[in-house]
Design brief:
The radius of gyration is 21 Å and the shape is globular. The protein has helices at 2-22, 65-84, 129-138, 221-225, 234-242, 255-267; strands at residues 26-31, 36-39, 48-50, 54-55, 88-90, 103-109, 119-125, 146-157, 160-161, 168-173, 176-180, 190-200, 206-217. Strands 2, 3, 4, 5, 8, 12 and 13 form a 7-stranded mixed β-sheet that branches. It has a domain at 24-154 and 192-215 and 253-273. With 280 residues, it is α+β, with helices and mostly antiparallel strands. The protein has 6 helices and 13 strands.
Length: 280
C-alpha cells in the first residue's frame, strides 16, 4: 500500500512539472483605432532571425482544411520574401516542441456581459517554458539580435462609423482603411485575412506584437438581416495571391506584400519603411 501511495505522489509531481513547462502568459489589449499593436522596441534588432511563416492555430479545425490548404502558396511567397531581405536569417524549427510557440491574433472578442459591446482585441499568447528554453539555447549561435514569429489567419473585425454623415469604414491596418457601403451593418462581424506576428528578444521575451489585415469579405445588408455571413473562400485567397494589389500605394504592390512589409516595419520600430498612401 505504501508503495502505491509513493507512486501516486511521484505521478502528481510529474504532472505538476509537466504543466509548469507548458504554462503560457496571456496578454490582451483593446483596440479602438489602427495601428493594431502593443509593446515597444528600443534600439537596433538587426540582423533579424525569422521562423517560417505559419498558419494561426485557430484554423486547425477540420472544417477549415480547404482554406488552410489555399493559404499554403501565400506562406511560400511570404517566406521567399523574407529570405530575400538582406537583414534576415532563417531559423530552423527542429528541436522545438510542437504547438508551443507564440500565438498572436487581432480579432473580435465577445463581450463579457450583455451590457458590454464586442470589441477588437489584440491577444498575445506567450510561448511555453519548454519552447523558450529551446529558443535561448539555439538563438545565440545564429548571431541575430531579434527574431520574428509570423503567422497568417482569418479573424473577425467590426465596421465603424466614420463620421456624422453615416460614412462607414473597416480598419485593416497601418494606413489602411477601406470604405464600406452605407447600408453595411455595424453589428455584423467581417472576416479579415490577416498577417500577425511578434518580435522576440534573444532571451525569449515578446517585445512587440500586432497584425495587419490584408483582405476582407463583407456581408451584404440583406444577408445580415437574416443573420447570414459571407466567408473568405478558397477563390478569394487565390485571387489575393495572384491578382489583388494595393492601388492606393506607390507602385501598386501586392496586397499581401504591403501587409507583410508594414508588419515588419511596425514590429521593428522602423516607421521609415512603412508603405503608406501618398495622401498621408
Amino acid at each position: 500500500m505504501k508503495f502505491f501511495k509513493q507512486c501516486a505522489v511521484w505521478l502528481v509531481l510529474v504532472l505538476i512539472l509537466t504543466g509548469c513547462a507548458s504554462m503560457r502568459s496571456v496578454r490582451t489589449q483593446g483596440l479602438d483605432r489602427t495601428p493594431h499593436y502593443r509593446g515597444r522596441v528600443d534600439g537596433d534588432y538587426l540582423p533579424l532571425g525569422f521562423f517560417p511563416v505559419s498558419i494561426q492555430p485557430g484554423m486547425n479545425d477540420w472544417f477549415q482544411s480547404d482554406r488552410r490548404e489555399a493559404l499554403r502558396p501565400l506562406l511560400d511567397r511570404m517566406n521567399a520574401c523574407l529570405e530575400q531581405m538582406d537583414f534576415t536569417v532563417s531559423m530552423q524549427t527542429d528541436g522545438y516542441p510542437e504547438r508551443s510557440g507564440p500565438e498572436i491574433t487581432v480579432g473580435l472578442e465577445e463581450a463579457g456581459s450583455k451590457k458590454e459591446e464586442p470589441r477588437l482585441m489584440l491577444r498575445e499568447l506567450g510561448p511555453t517554458k519548454a519552447w523558450v528554453q529551446a529558443f535561448t539555447e539555439k538563438t545565440p549561435e545564429t548571431g541575430v539580435k531579434g527574431v520574428l514569429w509570423i503567422s497568417v489567419g482569418i479573424q473577425d473585425y467590426l465596421v465603424r462609423q466614420k463620421d456624422w454623415k453615416g460614412g462607414k469604414v473597416l480598419d485593416l491596418g497601418t494606413g489602411h482603411s477601406i470604405p464600406v457601403p452605407w447600408l453595411t451593418s455595424l453589428d455584423t462581424p467581417v472576416e479579415v485575412l490577416q498577417v500577425s506576428g511578434a518580435l522576440i528578444s534573444p532571451e525569449g521575451k515578446i517585445l512587440r506584437s500586432g497584425a495587419e489585415g490584408i483582405i476582407a469579405k463583407r456581408t451584404g445588408f440583406l444577408a445580415s438581416v437574416f443573420d447570414l455571413r459571407s466567408k473568405i473562400s478558397q477563390s478569394d485567397i487565390q485571387t489575393l495571391i495572384n491578382e489583388t494589389v494595393r492601388e492606393d500605394l506607390p507602385g501598386s504592390p501586392p496586397a499581401w506584400e504591403a501587409a507583410l512589409n508594414n508588419l515588419l516595419a511596425q514590429l521593428t520600430g522602423r516607421p521609415d519603411r512603412l508603405m503608406l498612401p501618398e495622401k498621408q
